C-alpha cells in the first residue's frame, strides 16, 4: 500500500507510462491499449463476415450473435471473420451454429440451413437505398439437423 | 523547475495534493461496487467464455502467459472468486490482501473474456481504476478495517491516488485522440470517415442479427451532420488533459465527455457503461459529500 511521497511519485510515473505506452508502439491490448477503434480510414465499401440462416424456400436472414455462442455482436463478428480464414474452422463454426439454431426459439423454427458468408456492401448506399450486398461468397454451408 | 524545493511544490500541487480519506474511500466503494455489480450482472457470460472453440483463443494481458485455454470449469470458478474478493474490496475488509487480490482476479477474469479474438474497449478503464485503488490506502475510512478508528486528516497519501485515477481517465481519452490523428490526421474530422464508420457499424449489427441505431442509420443520409460531431469528439479526446487543471474544469470536461458517450450510444448503439454511468469521471467529483448525505439520510430514516 502506497502512502509516502516518493512511492506515490514512482506509482504515478509507472502507471502513466504503462497507460500511455501503447501510443508509441501503436499497439492494441489489454489492459493497455491505443484505443484504435474508429480511428483509421474507413472507406464506404465494407466487408462483413456473418452467418445467415436459410428457410426451405432459400430465403436467408442474419442469425443473432447467440447462434454463434455469444451475446456480443462484436465477438460474433470476430468469430465469423476468424473462422472464414480457414476451411476447417469455417466448417466447425457452421456445425456449432447449426446446433445452436435449435435453441434459438420459435422465431427461427423455419431455418433449415446455415451459411457462413463474406459479403461486400456499400455502407452508405445500404442505408440510403437498398440493403443488398454488391458481391459475396459462401464460405461454409451446413444443414440444421432434424429439419427437412 | 531545477531547484528541488520547486520540484517538490510542483509535485505536491499536481500529484500529491491533500485530500480527505473519505473521498478515496468513497471511490473504493463506488468503483469497487460497480466492478462487483458488473461481475454479477455478467457472471453467466464471463463464466461461459471457456466454452468458445479453442481456435478462437487469442490471449491478452496476463492470459498471454497461456498457450491454450484453461478448462471451462476453471474459468467458471474464477468468476465467483472474483466476486467474493470484490465484496471484500468494496467494504474494505482486510484491505492489504483484498485490494491486490481483487485487482488481480478482476484483471484475470476480464482479460480472459477479452482473449477470444475481440478486445472490448469498454472494460479497460474499469480494470485500471481498480488496479490504482488497490495500490492506495483506500480503506483508511468508511471500511470494516477502519471501524472504531478516527477518520484520518486529509493528506497527500489519499490525494495522489485520486489524482492518478483522474489522470488515468484523461490518458485513455488522450490516447484515443492521438491514435486518430496518427492514423487519419485531421481528415478524420474533415472527411466522411465518421459517417462511414457509423454506416458500417450499424450495417454490421444489422447483418449480424443484432439491434442497430435507427437514428444513426437515418443520419447517414445527411453527410453534413458528421464533421461537427467528429470535431467535438476529437476535441474531447485531445483536450482531455485540460481536465486536470482544476476541479471545475475537470467537471466541465467530464460533462462534455459524458455527452460524447451519450451521442455514441444514440448514433451507433454502442454503450460504454462505465462512462455513461459517470463512473469514469468519479475521480473528478467530491464523491464523499454525496455518500455522506446518503448515509445521513439513511441514519435519519432508520432511527425513526
Task: Note the main attributes of this structure.
heterodimer, A: 148 residues, alpha+beta, 2 domains, 4-stranded antiparallel β-sheet, 4 helices, B: 304 residues, mainly alpha, 14 helices
Quick structural overview:
With 148 residues, chain A is α+β, with helices and mostly antiparallel strands. Chain A is built from 4 helices and 4 strands.
Structural write-up:
The complex is a heterodimer of chains A (148) and B (304). Chain A folds into two domains: 1-40, no CATH class; 45-143, no CATH class. In chain A, 36% of the residues lie in helices and 22% in strands. Chain A has helices at 5-25, 73-84, 87-101, 123-128; strands at 45-54, 60-62, 113-122, 135-143. In chain A, strands 2-1-3-4 form a four-stranded antiparallel beta sheet. Chain B folds into two domains: 11-143 and 154-184, no CATH class; 186-271, no CATH class. Chain B has 304 residues and is mainly alpha-helical.
What is the averaged pLDDT score of chain B?
93
How large is the radius of gyration of chain A? Answer: 22 Å
Global geometry of chain A: elongated
Q: How many separate structural domains of chain B?
A: 2
Uncertain segments of chain A: none
Amino acid at each position: 500500500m502506497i502512502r509516502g511521497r516518493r512511492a506515490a511519485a514512482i506509482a504515478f510515473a509507472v502507471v502513466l507510462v504503462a497507460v500511455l505506452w501503447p501510443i508509441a508502439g501503436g499497439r492494441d491490448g489489454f489492459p493497455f491499449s491505443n484505443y484504435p477503434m474508429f480511428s483509421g480510414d474507413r472507406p464506404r465499401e465494407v466487408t462483413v463476415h456473418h452467418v445467415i440462416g436459410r428457410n426451405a424456400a432459400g430465403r436467408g436472414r442474419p442469425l443473432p450473435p447467440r447462434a454463434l455462442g455469444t451475446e456480443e455482436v462484436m465477438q460474433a463478428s470476430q468469430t465469423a471473420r476468424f473462422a472464414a480464414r480457414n476451411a476447417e474452422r469455417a466448417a466447425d463454426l457452421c456445425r456449432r451454429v447449426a446446433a445452436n439454431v435449435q435453441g434459438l426459439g420459435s422465431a427461427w423454427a423455419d431455418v433449415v440451413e446455415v451459411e457462413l458468408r463474406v459479403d461486400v456492401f456499400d455502407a452508405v448506399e445500404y442505408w440510403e437505398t437498398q440493403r443488398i450486398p454488391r458481391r459475396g461468397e459462401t464460405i461454409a454451408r451446413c444443414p440444421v439437423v432434424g429439419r427437412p | 523547475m531545477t531547484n528541488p524545493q520547486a520540484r517538490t511544490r510542483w509535485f505536491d500541487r499536481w500529484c500529491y495534493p491533500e485530500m480527505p480519506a473519505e473521498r478515496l474511500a468513497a471511490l473504493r466503494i463506488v468503483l469497487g461496487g460497480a466492478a462487483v455489480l458488473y461481475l454479477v450482472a455478467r457472471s453467466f457470460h464471463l463464466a461461459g467464455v471457456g466454452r468458445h472453440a479453442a481456435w478462437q483463443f487469442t490471449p491478452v494481458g496476463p492470459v498471454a502467459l497461456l498457450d491454450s485455454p484453461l478448462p471451462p470449469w476453471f474459468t467458471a470458478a474464477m468468476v465467483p472468486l472474483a466476486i467474493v474478493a470484490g465484496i471484500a474490496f468494496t467494504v474494505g475488509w482486510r484491505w492489504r490482501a483484498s485490494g491486490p487480490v481483487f485487482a488481480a482476479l478482476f484483471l484475470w477474469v476480464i482479460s480472459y473474456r477479452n482473449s477470444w479474438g475481440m478486445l472490448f474497449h469498454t472494460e479497460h478503464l474499469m480494470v485500471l481504476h481498480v488496479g490504482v485503488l488497490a495500490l492506495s490506502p483506500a480503506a483508511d475510512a468508511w471500511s470494516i478495517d477502519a471501524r472504531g478508528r478516527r477518520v484520518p486528516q486529509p493528506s497527500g497519501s489519499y490525494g495522489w491516488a485520486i489524482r492518478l485515477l483522474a489522470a488515468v481517465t484523461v490518458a485513455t481519452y488522450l490516447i484515443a485522440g492521438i491514435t486518430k490523428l496518427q492514423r487519419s490526421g485531421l481528415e478524420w474530422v474533415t472527411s466522411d470517415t465518421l459517417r462511414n464508420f457509423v454506416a458500417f457499424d450499424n450495417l454490421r449489427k444489422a447483418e449480424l442479427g443484432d439491434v442497430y441505431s435507427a437514428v444513426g442509420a437515418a443520419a447517414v443520409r445527411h453527410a453534413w451532420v458528421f464533421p461537427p460531431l467528429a470535431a467535438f469528439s476529437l476535441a474531447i479526446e485531445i483536450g482531455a488533459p485540460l481536465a486536470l487543471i482544476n476541479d471545475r474544469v475537470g467537471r466541465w470536461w467530464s460533462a462534455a465527455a459524458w455527452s460524447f458517450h451519450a451521442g455514441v450510444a444514440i448514433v451507433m448503439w454502442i454503450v460504454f457503461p462505465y462512462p455513461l454511468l459517470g463512473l469514469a469521471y468519479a475521480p473528478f467529483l467530491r464523491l464523499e459529500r454525496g455518500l455522506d448525505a446518503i448515509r445521513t439520510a439513511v441514519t435519519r430514516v432508520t432511527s425513526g
